[in-house]
Amino acid sequence: MPASDTAPGDEMERQQLLVSLQRFMAELPVDERSLVRLRFNDGLSQRQISSVLRIPQQTVSRRLKLAIERLRRRFVLQLARN
């Protein structure tokens, strides 16, 4: 459904989730935050990130997994409080 067809409550919830994501991203360690941005904002593969940052692909994979898990836990905690 296009954004223009969403109910006002749905759009407000989406905006709240985006604000939460930005806040949670800011709480990540810098190295994890940059990996998440390169992967999901810039669309780079783990191999490309490895090349750009000059770190082993296994390190990229491990740090991305950790960062995503941190974000997931923060969202779960937020949902539990609401």
Q: Any overview of this molecule?
A:
There is one protein chain. The mean pLDDT is 89. It contains four helices and no strands. Helices cover 79% and strands 0% of the residues. It has 82 residues and is an all-alpha fold. The protein has a single domain (3-81), classed as Arc Repressor Mutant, subunit A (Orthogonal Bundle).
* Number of DSSP helical runs: 4
The CATH class:
Mainly Alpha
- Name the CATH architecture: Orthogonal Bundle
CATH superfamily: Winged helix-like DNA-binding domain superfamily/Winged helix DNA-binding domain
Would you tell me the overall average pLDDT?
89
Number of strands: 0
Strand fraction equals under 5%
Could you state the order of secondary-structure elements as H and E? Answer: HHHH
Gap between N and C termini, in Å?
A: 26 Å
Shape: elongated
Helix content: over 70%
Structural domain count? 1
